[in-house]
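From the pipeline queue, job 12 of 40. The input is one protein chain; the requested action is below.

Action: predict structure.
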Amino acid sequence: MTPFAQSAYGRNAVLTATPAQLLTMLYDRLLLDLSRAQATQQAEQWHAASEQLLHAQAIVTELIGSLRVEAWDGADQLLALYQYVLSALVNANVHRDGAQVTECIELLEPLRRAWHDAAAAHTVVPATPTTGWLGDLGVA
């Protein structure tokens, strides 16, 4: 598959995904970034690790921005976790601290699995302009 075809396929997957699928895609990519950052830090490839950590930070920032804390009772705690993870990722990058990357993986992996389980159990309609791309899951 050519890079253009891969890009088009990925773009189409995002555009046709349900809110639940989009959220699981974000978590999957976040954990992939963290795994790559962990490996590149261990190899002392600091520039590559930094790129992965910056992308992970962007994903967490997106998760923070899309979370509607008024939508459900546990949202405040999830927001606090996201803020903690974001801070840990910044510190992991600045201080080249692989232990903080490992901690973030350990905190986020159970959530990734839980969102996948919830998405599989919950039938949602594709996102619309009124629900937002994560609207049915309590995030906008």
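Job complete. The radius of gyration is 16 Å.
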